[in-house]
Amino acid sequence: MSEALAPAFLVASLLLCASGAMKLRSPRVPMRALGIAEIALGTACAVYPTRALAVALALVYLSFAVVAEVFRRRRQACGCFGENDNFPVTLAHVIASELLGTLVLAAAIAGPRGLGWVLGLPAPQAVVLLAGIAGAVYAVVLVYTVVPRAWGAWERA
C-alpha cells in the first residue's frame, strides 16, 4: 500500500519545496524564514522519508488548510507561493491542502516512500513516474495560484 501512496507523498513534499522557494524572494524576513523551513521539511521528506517526518508534513498541510479557511472567509490572499500570490483564497485552496494532508497522513501510516524508492525502480518506470510527479506538482501549484484568478474573473463576469 505504501507504494501506491508514494507519488502523492512526493507531490506534497516537492510542492512544499516549491512554495518555500517562492517565498525566498519576499522582502519580509519572516516570510523568507518560513520558506527555508518549508524547503527543509519538503526536502527531508522527499530524500529521507520517515513516519515522523510524514506526520509533521501532514500536520503542516492540515494547518495550512485551517489557515486557508480563515483567509477564505476574510477574502484575503495567503501568499503561499510568494508575494505575487495576491488573490483571495478559494475553496479549491482549502480542499487541496486538506487532501494533501490526508494523503500524507495515510502515507505516514503505511510507511512513506521517497525519491530513493522511485530511483530504485527500473529506469523507464522511474522516468515516467518522476515526470508524472513533476507534472502533478505543477498542476497543484496552478490550483493554488491560477484557479483563484480564474474563479475571480468568472465571478466578475
Q: How would the blueprint of this fold be written?
A:
Elements: H1 2-23, H2 29-47, H3 51-74, H4 91-110, H5 115-119, H6 123-156
Could you characterize what this model shows?
The longest helix is centred in the last third of the chain and has 34 residues, at 123-156. It is globular, with a radius of gyration of 16 Å. The protein has 157 residues and is mainly α. It starts with a helix and ends with a helix. Helices cover 79% and strands 0% of the residues. The chain has one domain (2-156). It contains six helices and no strands. The protein has helices spanning 2-23, 29-47, 51-74, 91-110, 115-119, 123-156.
Question: Which short descriptors sum up this protein?
Answer:
mainly alpha, 6 helices, 79% helix, 157 residues
- Number of separate domains: 1
Strand content: under 5%
State the helicity in percent bands. over 70%
| Overall pLDDT | 92
| Overall form | globular
Class by helix and strand content? mainly alpha
Describe the structure concisely for a colleague.
It contains six helices and no strands. By secondary structure, it is an all-alpha fold. The mean pLDDT is 92.
